[in-house]
Amino acid sequence: MICQALNIEELKNQLAIWRQASKKIVFTNGVFDILHLGHATYLEAAALHGDVLIVGINSDYSVRRLNKGPERPIHTAEDRAQLLTALHSVSAVIIFDEDTPHELILQLQPDVLVKGGDYDADCLDTTHPKYIVGSKEVKNAGGKVITIPLVAGHSTTRILSRNRN
């Protein structure tokens, strides 16, 4: 399967095809600014929970609003999307402008929602930092919410702080 970055209409059309073929849809999201081993390991593990993995990435404007740092993002959303599409574990990539993927999750209705181990799949408090946006909606629709342990020592923040010193 050839992976590419899609807009919402293209992705909805592709979702219809996958659902017609009874594919289990997995969704995750993030910034993925400097692709590293932690990202690759995480995405491979996420893909194991279904048949296709959709990755939502924050637009450049969204990353700036998240206060990741004045120089972030390092790479444009288009570059980040292209890098992710090169990974065999990723089936589709979509860029979103909102601060969270909530609206995107509502539109895509994945069977499985995946986040890293710094989140809590059982957290119900929407104001808590460990709450997974969209988890309530996915669970209410009969889907699963899963967290995957982070790979110790591998994070974009750590890589950037090492390069500053």
Question: Helices and strands in order, then pairings?
Answer:
Layout: H1 8-20, E1 25-30, H2 37-47, E2 52-58, H3 60-65, H4 77-85, E3 92-96, H5 102-108, E4 112-116, H6 135-140, E5 144-148, H7 156-164
Parallel strand pairs: 1-2, 1-4, 2-3, 4-5
Give the tally of β-strands: 5
Q: Multimeric state of these chains? A: single chain
Q: State which percent range the strand residues make up.
A: 15-25%
Sequence of strands across the biggest β-sheet: 3-2-1-4-5
Please, could you describe this protein's structure?
The chain has 165 residues and is of the alpha/beta class. 37% of the residues lie in helices and 17% in strands. The chain has helices at 8-20, 37-47, 60-65, 77-85, 102-108, 135-140, 156-164; strands at 25-30, 52-58, 92-96, 112-116, 144-148. It has a five-stranded parallel β-sheet. Helix 6 (135-140) links the parallel strand 4 (112-116) and strand 5. The protein is globular, with a radius of gyration of 15 Å.
